[in-house]
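B., you asked whether I could sanity-check this one before it goes into the benchmark set. Here's the sequence:
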Amino acid sequence: MKRLLPVLAVLLLAACGRGGPAPADLAKSAAEAKTFMETNAKVEGVQILPSGVQYKIVRSGPATGLKPGPNDEVKVHYEGKLVDGKIFDSSYERGAPAAMPLPALIPAWKEALQLMRPGDEWTLYVPPAQGYGEEGAGNGEIPPNSVLIFRIELIDVLPAPGRIGQG
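And here's what the prediction gave me:
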């Protein structure tokens, strides 16, 4: 038994040093995210998608534009920030919109963008499960269980090859 104690101590210390947030921190951030989303859902004009993603329409474009399909590419201007207002990404700051394939985006963007048309601008309120979850992203820039707030302006839809019809 005495021989096992040093081995167990080393294994225990190695397990503790694995980076990542402690379970108590994850639980606290998840509770804070839940509270934010519940409170935000009561704000006038906020609508809720089946996944729990919330959005507010800032501006509507022409009702005749093509909605993106699940495999299309979109051209968007956007700004992403945390609930404390810290901006973590912005095409506006870079001075140019971004073109991105829908399949490569976080679940919240995939869901919301397929409901938008070019010219639409929405504010998305993204619960952790529809964003970066318990992992977070950006080398800690987006902490685990963060609610994300995105301002998204859909500029254009670049249909996937073989796509037919209006969305």
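One thing to flag: The CA atoms of residues 7 and 13 lie 10 Å apart. Otherwise nothing jumped out at me.
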